[in-house]
TrEMBL record:
The chain crosses the membrane at residues 7-28, 280-304. NCBIfam families: GGDEF. The keyword Mitochondrion does not apply. Its main location: membrane. This is diguanylate cyclase. It holds the Pfam family GGDEF. It is a multi-pass membrane protein. Its EC number is 2.7.7.65. SMART domains: GGDEF. It comes from Marinobacterium zhoushanense. Keywords: Cell membrane, Membrane, Transmembrane, Transmembrane helix. The keyword Phosphoprotein does not apply.
């Protein structure tokens, strides 16, 4: 694996790990904060609101029961000996119709008769469990109570009773009066809250039995029989309020309970994962998708940048910085390939080495910047006069090497003469002077026995022959350097 791919893999891992870590930390922090908000604030607030509305709905019937207990007709009728049953029946029927209550009643402490809009229904007895409420209430110090019980007139119906004590003019207890409300009022309140807040609400008694619930309730009739709530039943039934959560079908269910003293029941509020939880989860998914997209974009930009710098580095490694020509590293790689190709195709291959005559004097006289300009201008001249298949290398300070595929010794000699003549005619203006140099070249054609180094060596010896023969000329290898 190349360094480039290693860098990209490490970069992608760093980016993706960073994005994933940040997204997950944000998700779990937001989720935990939301869970605490639900457990500590939202659900208790819902319970408080329901409790407040229950109390508000009970204020009116409490007021009605209070009026009944202080009504002079009721007291006078009892003190007179309860002689006209029709009178109290009409009175109770009028109370029921006028105030739209579920029922109204009066229980005489003297005769123990239970009066109802339908008449005198029964006499309450200490031995009848259904009448236990009266004797308990009579001995209680409170002037009134709210009690949920079965209706004496219709035992199949659960009713919310407001029981108010009735005293004569001397302060003696003479009975209990009051009205009853249907539990449908509380049930409707539950339905409204469930629709508004998407929470499940129900009431249980002191023993864990579910007393009032919405029509959509599907839980157990006894929380001790519930697979989830049974674990927390004791905790709920022994504490005025509690809050906890449990897992069910892959969801977190938050539960809040509080005792409603007026009913002596517990109000239970349950909520599954809230819409806010879903939004937090969707935000996590979007963050992860965004992280992948950003990571891919960064990797693409990194890939393009690395490739750009790699090409630049490769260019710097393979080209001469001054002239832009190929350097010796390129020649070392290309020459064996060209030799192999020439021999495989049966084509000639020639090599030329050129050296600038008088270049040292230009440097000494005009300075190295002018010398660099001279080198660069001649390199451009060489490039314009050679073929695209030819390889032109800067061989040394003022030396150039030409590798000419599909070119024999004669063709190479012709090109060498053209190059020599072009350099001789070439001039570089420096201030008021026209500065020029000449070119000496040595050429060699690939023989069957030549190795890469031997081909270059023969061309180099041919160059030495040109230098030794007076410069500004083209030479071939001396006979002693010919192979064989």
């Amino acid at each position: 694996m190349t360094k480039k791919y290693q860098i990209l893999i490490i970069l992608s891992l760093l980016l993706f790990t960073g994005f994933i870590s940040t997204s997950l930390i944000s998700y779990f922090t937001a989720r935990d904060s939301l869970e605490r908000e639900i457990e500590e604030s939202t659900l208790p607030l819902t319970g408080d609101n329901i409790y407040s509305e229950i109390q508000r709905d009970l204020l009116r019937p409490i007021f009605i029961s209070s009026l009944m207990s202080h009504d002079t007709f009721v007291r006078d009728w009892v003190i007179a000996g309860e002689q006209d049953t029709e009178a109290i029946t009409r009175y109770l029927k009028e109370i029921q119709a006028r105030y739209e209550t579920e029922t109204s009643f009066f229980v005489s402490d003297k005769t123990r008769w239970y009066y109802h809009p339908k008449g005198a229904i029964k006499q309450v007895s200490k031995t009848d469990p259904q009448d236990a409420w009266y004797f308990r209430f009579k001995s209680d110090l409170a002037p009134y109570e709210i009690n949920i019980d079965r209706d004496t007139a219709d035992p199949s119906r659960i009713t919310v009773f407001i029981n108010y004590k009735v005293y004569d003019y001397n302060g003696n207890f003479i009975g209990a009066a009051g009205v009853g409300l249907s539990t449908s009022v509380v049930k409707q309140l539950i339905e409204d809250y469930q629709q508004r807040f998407n929470r499940e609400i129900f009431f249980i008694n002191r023993f864990g039995k579910v007393m009032i619930h919405s029509d959509s309730y599907t839980g157990a009739d006894q929380i001790r029989n519930s697979p989830e709530l049974s674990v927390y039943a004791t905790r709920i039934l022994t504490s005025p309020s509690s809050a906890f959560s449990y897992q069910s079908a892959g969801q977190t269910i938050y539960v809040n309970s509080r005792l409603v003293p007026e009913f002596n029941w517990y109000l239970i509020v349950q909520q599954a994962n809230s819409p806010a939880s879903e939004r937090i989860y969707h935000t996590l998914i979007l963050n992860l998708i965004g992280s992948v997209i950003v990571t891919l974009i960064v990797l693409l930009l990194a890939w393009l940048t690395i490739n750009k710098f790699q090409r630049r580095l490769e260019a710097l490694a393979q080209t001469d910085k001054l002239t832009g020509l190929a350097n010796r590293q390129v020649l070392d790689r290309v020459l064996p390939q060209q030799i192999a190709q020439a021999r495989r195709r049966g084509e000639p291959l020639s090599c030329m080495i050129g050296d600038l005559d008088g270049f040292k004097q230009v440097n000494d006289t005009y300075g190295h910047p002018v010398g660099d300009q001279m080198i660069n201008s001649i390199a451009e001249l060489f490039t314009s006069m050679t073929r695209g298949a030819d390889l032109v290398c800067r061989w040394g300070g003022d030396e150039f090497l030409f590798l000419l595929p599909n070119c024999d010794r004669q063709q190479a000699g012709q090109l060498a003469e053209k190059l020599r003549d072009a350099v001789e005619q070439h001039r570089l203006r420096v201030s008021n002077d026209l500065v020029g140099v000449t070119l000496s070249l040595g050429i060699a054609e690939l023989s069957e026995q030549d190795a890469p180094d031997e081909l270059i060596l023969r061309a180099d010896h041919a160059l030495l022959a040109s230098k030794g023969g007076g410069r500004n000329r083209v030479s071939e290898p001396p006979l002693e350097y010919q192979p064989g």
